[in-house]
């Protein structure tokens, strides 16, 4: 049975309900961001091994960091071992002799997949 609220306290009751719902949603989103960033770092380790071979510094250097707050959540996946190398490998770079090395796309496809997974998980939680 529904709880009765006097009309003069209706605004506060609705605010309280919406605040609780917002806190629950933000908590779920924070958990999703943490999971997705961990999964992304793991996937990039595998993609790096497949694309470039071996298990060297580059492949094992992928890590993630999630910054979550009351009203925001942000996840970052980065290579801590060789920070500038992912950009050069993904986009290509100039050679000493004047030529150009073609980029090897391995981060963009993982990013697209993670975005799709994030969106579907958030939709399922709402």
How much of the sequence is in beta strands?
5-15%
Task: Please provide the count of β strands.
Answer: 4
**What proportion of the residues is helical, as a percent range?**
55-70%
Number of structural units classed as domains: 1
The main β sheet shows up as: 2 strands, antiparallel
Q: Order of strands across the biggest sheet?
A: 1-2
Structural class: alpha+beta
Number of DSSP helical runs: 4
- Which residues sit in consecutive blocks of at least 5 with pLDDT less than 50? none
Round the Cα radius of gyration to an integer and report it: 22 Å
Shape: elongated
Distance between the termini: 24 Å
Overall pLDDT level: 89
Could you state the order of secondary-structure elements as H and E?
HHEEHEEH
